[in-house]
Amino acid sequence: MRERLRVDGISEAALFRYFLTIMAFDWLQFTNIATTSAASVSTWTLVSSWITFIITIAGLIYLYLRNGGAKGRQFLRRYFPLSVTVGWKFVVAMFVSMWFVAWTMAGASAEVRGWISTFASRRLTSS
Q: Residue 58, SS3?
């Protein structure tokens, strides 16, 4: 492996498999922490954690395929700069969205605010 790395002999497909493996491993750790950090974990937290894991892995595979799959070029060189740019835009949009939900739903129950914030974040990610 060291020699293949030294002479740049790893294919895009192999590089993506390594990247997908480490991302899946990291997200499984995050999911495990979120679902076992308390004596009692709500069903919503459990479902949300696993859905986030599935979306992350499916999203990476989708982006890889959109980049041409095994025939694509420079997936990671494109992925990282774009993920930072899109990530910052998403963070700003989420803060504004959550502030707006909290402000407009101040008198509503916690369950209603939770579902509204989920709806708002879903609208942001599908835009």
A: helix
